[in-house]
């Protein structure tokens, strides 16, 4: 089935952002910002009492959703995001998207999508676009 403009992508729900995984990712990325692993630092900044998820993790939630719909993350040819807010440990998230254009290209279809990451019951924390390349339908 050929994607159509306005088509909604299947959402991906992240049941709970894991604080321990944030800590591990900080070490792997050599990210010294203590808001990702030290609650006292978050509190000192007046941001509450839960650690803050890394931006690349938030993007990965959305890109995983897009790749799953497209048949693999290797089909993602371009993406661009704007960060709108923080994601805190324990929050439940929903990654979503909508097809905004479908273009015939030599080796298939170039499908552009509007993308979003939202705290369930809260606000949008990430918005952007992504393009995937699909085989001829």
From TrEMBL:
Residues 5-114 form the MaoC-like domain. InterPro entries: HotDog_dom_sf (IPR029069), MaoC-like_dom (IPR002539). Gene3D superfamilies: Hotdog Thioesterase (3.10.129.10). Transmembrane segments: none annotated. It comes from the Bacteria. Belongs to the enoyl-CoA hydratase/isomerase family. This is Protein dehydratase. It comes from Rhodococcoides kyotonense.
């Amino acid at each position: 089935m050929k994607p159509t403009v306005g088509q909604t992508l299947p959402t991906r729900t992240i049941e709970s952002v894991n604080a321990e995984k944030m800590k591990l990712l900080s070490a792997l990325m050599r990210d010294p910002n203590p808001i990702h692993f030290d609650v006292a630092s978050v509190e000192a900044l007046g941001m509450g009492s839960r650690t803050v998820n890394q931006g690349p993790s938030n993007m990965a939630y959305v890109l995983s959703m897009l790749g799953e719909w497209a048949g693999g993350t290797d089909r993602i040819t371009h993406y661009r995001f704007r960060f709108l807010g923080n994601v805190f440990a324990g929050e439940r998230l929903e990654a979503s998207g909508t097809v905004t254009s479908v273009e015939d290209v030599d080796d298939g279809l170039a499908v552009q999508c509007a993308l979003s990451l939202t705290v369930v019951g809260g606000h949008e924390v990430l918005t952007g676009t992504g393009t995937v390349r699909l085989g001829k339908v």
